[in-house]
Amino acid sequence: MADLLLLRGGVVLTMDPDIGDLAIGDVLIEDGRIAAVGQNLVATGADTVDCSGKIVIPGFVNSHHHMFQTALRSYWSDGLELDYFMQSRFGSEALFHQYSPDDVYWGELGGALENLAAGTTTVVDTSQCSYTPEHTDAALDGIRRSGIRCVFSYSPVFGDHEAHPAYAHPEDIGRIVDAAGDSGLVSLALGYHVDEDLFRLARDLDLPVFAHVNDANWGRVLEEFESDGLLGPLITYIHCLDLADSSWKAIARTGGKVSVSSIAEQTLAMGHPALQAALSHGVPVSFGTDAVSIAPVDFFSQMRAAFCLQRGAIRTSGESTPLPLSTRETLRIATLGGAQAAHLDHLVGSLTPGKRADVVVLNARALNAGPVLNAPGAVVHMMDTSNVETVLVDGRIVKSDGRLIDVDTDHVLDKLAASAEGLLSRSGARNIFLTSCRHG
Ligand SMILES: [Zn+2]
Predict the structure, then answer these.
(1) Range of the domain at 386
(2) Can you give the pLDDT of all 440 residues of the chain as single tens digits?
(3) How many angstroms is it from 242 CA to the middle of ligand 1?
(4) Are 258 and 228 in contact (CB under 8 A)?
(5) From the CA of 313, how far away is ligand 1's center (Å)?
């Protein structure tokens, strides 16, 4: 007997260009798959979720996140790029070098749960904490425990790693691929910056690559890689700040995708976020959040930041004026655009029959959302995580009535607080909040 779930009577924003939006519509889910989208669907024996007064969208897809950092939430809120890199990675006292596998586990689990609670059903996790195979396994355990859909981008730690003799990047990828088997919601990729060996290894293993391209110099390296045949559609380029036009053309010609983390990039003063550059060059673009040590995970903040960034640049550019971004296009980037950048758009990213059911139901019967006169506008400009009522991953309800299912939030928060305390004390780093309180 099929497992049937009917989301009935909501405003449905499918993000599927052929289906469009339904002012009132239903989504039928069968055995974890979207079976139908339409009006007045009949599904005998289905469990039903009443979606009147709600907006139904595909789950958000976060194309760049370092979830292991969850215990360090807001640590670099006032930091610049150099503060972040030097304090996190360089020298034996650097914060990331204090991570035990247990710290990684709770960071990944807490980060994944936070994404789910905020309506993000897929995350690309660029781990950067694989000091030992045990660290990597702990990351994967935390992700699997959460129930999120994840592309685990196995990445080297960079900076100093002499203190970790078991450090085995990238050789350990073979063991991870073998152990993954039919791994359900978690798929594998490789991550780093623009690195020739890694790009070749990914091609040999037929894995996607998520590569940090932080500035124009790395963009130029990309152009050399194009002549060596190393670029292709399975590569997603992260940040891409202030790239030369020729670098953008290399990405576009080879079918690459881009991930923009505009809040984190602007907080660290890394340069001008690449949203408009990607749009202008016809490169599929997506949103990432980077790290909660710097910036928030919720996609409502990300969408608003991106929308305002793009429109603000139009007002001041004066030259060839790009088209203003719409709220619907912003929502498409946050969902289907993310799925394209995660290389999972054949599975998720839109409410399309045949795709897996990663779905979010947003409560619009709330003082910050009603009355709804423009549904994408209500989602992008008005809503926040308090409107995220029901979340499904692969057809399974992971959040209902505004609460995560089978999650002891207090326990997770206690573990993260203990992890933060240990990381700070082992590194000798200051608790910035307490320090700033003392000094006013
Ligand atoms: Zn990053």
Answers:
(1) 4-58+352-404
(2) 679 999 999 999 999 999 999 999 999 999 999 999 999 999 999 999 999 999 999 999 999 999 999 999 999 999 999 999 888 888 778 899 999 999 999 999 999 999 999 999 999 999 889 888 999 999 999 999 999 999 999 988 766 656 565 666 777 888 888 877 666 899 999 998 888 988 999 999 999 999 999 999 999 999 999 999 999 999 999 999 999 999 999 999 999 999 999 999 999 999 999 999 999 999 999 999 999 999 999 999 999 999 999 998 886 655 567 889 999 999 999 999 999 999 999 999 999 999 999 999 999 999 999 999 999 999 999 999 999 999 999 999 999 999 999 999 999 999 999 999 999 999 987 766 655 555 54
(3) 16
(4) no
(5) 24
Q: What's the CA gap between 330 and 349, in Å, rounded? A: 13
Q: Which one of 298, 313, 341 terminates a domain?
A: 341
Residue with tokens 């689990």: 109
Task: Kindly give the distance from the C-alpha atom of residue 192 to the centroid of ligand 1, in angstroms, as a whole number.
Answer: 9
Q: In angstroms, what is the span from residue 265 Cα to ligand 1's centroid?
A: 10
Provide the residue count of the chain.
440
One domain, residues 129 and 71: yes
Ligand 1 centroid distance, CA of 149 (Å): 19
DSSP for 108-148?
A: HHHHHHHHHHTTEEEEEEE----SSHHHHHHHHHHHHHHT-
Q: Could you tell me the distance, in angstroms and rounded to a whole number, from the CA of residue 350 to the centre of ligand 1?
A: 26
Report CA torsion sign: 128, 107, 124, 203.
positive
Kind and range of the H or E element at 10? strand 4-13
For ligand 1, the distance from its centroid to the CA atom of residue 186, given in whole angstroms, is 19
| Structural contact between residues 324 and 310, judged by C-beta atoms closer than 8 angstroms | yes
pTM: 0.96
Do the beta carbons of residue 74 and residue 39 sit within 8 Å?
A: no
Q: How far is the CA of 11 from the centre of ligand 1 (A)?
A: 35
Whether 182 is in a domain gets the answer yes
Say how many Å lie between the CA of residue 222 and the centre of ligand 1: 18
Indicate whether 425 belongs to any domain: no
